[in-house]
Design brief:
The chain is α+β, with helices and mostly antiparallel strands. The chain has 3 helices and 2 strands; from the N terminus they run H-E-E-H-H. Helices cover about 60% and strands about 15% of the residues. A two-stranded antiparallel ribbon has the order 1-2.
Amino acid sequence: MSRHKQQDQSSTFIIRFGHDELIIRRRYQVASILNDFLIAVWFLIGSILFLFASLEEPGVWLFILGSTQLLIRPTIRLAGMIHLQKIPESSWES
């Protein structure tokens, strides 16, 4: 199997539902996009809650959650660049 094909398989995540499959390619990019989406959701909801004095505290917590996820973003990108993969025994050098 070529190295290119191995990389394609290692970056693909497959979930099977009976006879159907959900295939996620480039899983680190997908994780990064989902993380960015959640950051936007937390900040949007936090901003709306901040408009009401009685809901300011939950709004602040959503801002803190979104800020924490901003720290996760570079971690996901770095993990995608530095991915450890198990080498099959047949490929070991003596």
